[in-house]
Here is the input.
Amino acid sequence: MIIVMNESATLSELGQVIKVLEDRGFHPRPSHGQSGTVIGVMDAAGSDLADVAAMPGVQQVSPLSSKFKLVSRGFQDAPTVVRVGDIEIGGKDFVVMAGPCAVESKDQFLTTARHVRDCGGNIVRGGAFKPRTSPYSFQGLREEGLQIMAAAREETGLPVVTEVISPETVPLVTRYADILQIGARNMQNYALLDAVGSQRKPVLLKRGLMSTIEEMLLAAEYLMSNGNNQVMLCERGIRTFERATRNTLDLSAVPVLKEASHLPVIIDPSHAVGYVAYVDAMARAAVAAGADGIIVETHPDPANALSDGQQSLDFPAFARMMEGLKPIAEAVGRRMPAVADPAT
Ligand code: PEP
Ligand code: MN
Here is the structure.
C-alpha cells in the first residue's frame, strides 16, 4: 500500500500515521519528495487502511499494483538524486565517470585520474576485483587496487567507483569506494544485492547481459528493500545475435527506465559496443536520449591494457569525446562541469 500525505501535512501528523502503522506490525517507509511525503507499506498489501485514510494529513491511500514498488514512479514521482560529495547524479548535471577497466599500477591509475579530472570528468572508475570470463585472465589487484584508487581520490578530489563481486568483500570495498558497482554478471546475485543494499554507499547496478528491464528493476528493488535508496541503473549493452559490436546498446532502456522508475540512468557505451571506434557516438546518443550520465573506459596505453584495451579510449580520444558531449548536453538542457584549470 502507498499512503500519500498532503503537501501541508505536519511532521507530527506524519509521525502519528507511522505510529499507527507500526503498532499494527507493519514496516512503513517514508520517502520525502518535492511535493510532500509518501509512505510505502509493502507488508500491508490487501489490508484495510480506511482508518488511516481518514487521519489528519493523509491525502490518499492506494494499493501499489505495480510489480516494482520502491523503485517505481508510483512510489516516488520526483527523480532520485544520488549525491556523492558535491556531485549530484539524476539532477541537472550530466555526469561522466571514466577510467581504466582495471587498476593496473599506481602510475597507470593516477595518470588516468588526472586526465579524467582535467577533461572535466566527475568520477574515476577502475576495477580492483575483476570478474573475468576466463579464470586465466588478470583478476585485478584486489585490496592494493582499492588503495591505489583511494590515493587517486586523495590527489585529484574525484570520487571513485569500483566493482564488488562477492558478499564477503562488501565491507572491504565499502571502506575504500565512494560508489559500489554491481557488474552485469552479478545483477541477479541476490546474496550480493542483499549485502550491497544493506550498506549505505551509493550503488551503480549494471544490467545483466541477458536481463530484461523488468529483471533489472527487480534487482534494484532488492537493493532498495534492504534500505539503500542511493541506486543508479546502468545500461551496458545486452547480448543479441549481432556480432559487429560486443553487445547491443539498448538505448531505448533510457526512456523506458525513466518512465518506470525515479532512479538515475547511466549508459556504459564502452562495454556496450566493445570497440573504441563506436564509443564516442554512443556516448553522444546517451546524452541526447536523456541519460543522467555515462561510465566510460579510458587508458593511457590501450594497446597494452590488461583488460578491455580494445574498447578503451586513449587520452586524446577521451578529451575529444568530452568536447563533443558539451553542445549536446546544452541542447537537451543538461549541464556539464567546467573543465578544471590544469594550473590549479
Ligand atoms: C566493467 O565495468 O569493467 C565491467 C566488467 O562491466 P560489466 O559488468 O558491465 O561487464
Ligand atoms: Mn571493462
